[in-house]
Amino acid sequence: MRAAGLRGIGAHRPANRVDNTEISVRLDSSDEWIRDRSGIVTRGIAGPDETVVEMAVSAGGKALAAAGVDPADIGLVMVATCTLTHAIPGASGRVGARLGLRNAGALDLGAACAGFSYGLSLAADTVRCGTADNVLVIGSEKFSDILDPYDRSTAFLFGDGAGAAVVGVADVDGISPPVWCHDGDQADILQTVGNPPILRMEGQAVYRWATTTLPGLARAACERAGVEIGDLAALVPHQANLRITDSLVRALKLPEHIVVARDVVDSGNTSAASIPLALSRLLEAGEVRRGDQVLLLGFGAGLTAAGQVVRCP
Amino acid sequence: MTATAPELLTGLTEIVDEICGSATAEKVTLDATFDDDLQIDSLTMVEVVVACEEKFGVRIPDEALENLKTVGDAVTFISDAGVAA
């Protein structure tokens, strides 16, 4: 079987930044209250023209450029999103058309905040099996469309943005088999209600599930990848809440030399977009380099989660 | 044999010490409120509860959390749940 790896990463961060002060007015809270509960300082909020599709096109185009892959050589595009406000059509067809992916299949992927991790895994297997030589995986979310600005559980937590990766044939395998799990019995603690949909979350229940599930998932993912935790260059968990990341770091007794992605501070929780956004920031800052091994952990609504170790492009 | 209230209070104090530090642990009494007196917010409270579940072998459901206002409430809940010493 062929080997698959990351070839390039792309990010789209909305230019419009919204800080805590602006949000806290509607929540009868404060910048300090929001920072204490989430670590978040600011987040990108998309403009009217920055739709899920447009942000995906932007991030996807940058990933293609970073990978040096011609759009015609993409065999499949997957868009992970949970913030389209309609069911039909999905985003992937339009994204494929806008990027000129004329030889690609197109599909949307659910799995919410774990969508990018699931997408990477499916993309890697698609490449390994020879179904496609290159797959474009995109996470794109516009939470500002489905937030209740007066909801003290969610209004300050989520942001907008998109991130993408090209997965292609590699000399050495650079995307480990995933470890994944789900807990559908608790599905209703993080869901949309009504039409148009509005996000509702039981924060304590989600926090409990995440902080009790992630340490085991992280260890299992490393074990399946054949990697010692101490050999990782970085930990890039889904950027849900800095408190969850910090709890995970404590539980794993993570050695200090391992870089921990904390993009949530500047981006908020961008669900399926958060892992590629956080990884692209580490690459841009030179905190990780080509070939470095990074543990990705996606987790969220469903409830569903997936983790894998990847090598940086 | 069931753990006594003083034993549960000691155990809870150890948990608060581990999660929040000794300055907070020194303020633990049966009457101390988690939010105002100990400054334990809703997410830290989840960590305290998960630690209690592990230490005392009880299940404290999310629905019960909002009723645990004071350390004494937690001691009573754990005691009623029939924790073994």
Please give a structural write-up:
The complex is a heterodimer of chains A (313) and B (85). Chain A is of the alpha/beta class and 313 residues long. Chain A has 2 domains: 3-170, Thiolase/Chalcone synthase (Peroxisomal Thiolase, Chain A, domain 1, 3-Layer(aba) Sandwich); 179-311, Peroxisomal Thiolase, Chain A, domain 1 (3-Layer(aba) Sandwich). Chain A has helices at residues 20-27, 31-38, 52-67, 92-99, 115-128, 203-225, 242-252, 264-267, 274-284, and strands at residues 3-12, 17-19, 42-44, 76-80, 105-109, 134-142, 160-170, 179-182, 190-193, 198-201, 234-237, 259-260, 293-300, 304-311. In chain A, the strands form 4 sheets. In chain A, strands 1-7-6-4-5 form a 5-stranded mixed β-sheet, with helices on both faces. A 5-stranded mixed β-sheet of chain A has the order 8-14-13-11-12, with helices on both faces. The longest helix of chain A has 23 residues, at 203-225. The model of chain A has no long low-confidence stretch (mean pLDDT 97). Chain B is mostly helical and 85 residues long. Chain B has one domain (5-80): ACP-like (Non-ribosomal Peptide Synthetase Peptidyl Carrier Protein, Chain A). Chain B contains 5 helices and no strands. Chain B has helices at 5-20, 22-25, 42-56, 62-65, 71-80. In chain B, α1 (5-20) crosses α3. The chains are: A alpha/beta (313), B mainly alpha (85). At the A-B interface, α6 of A face α3 of B.
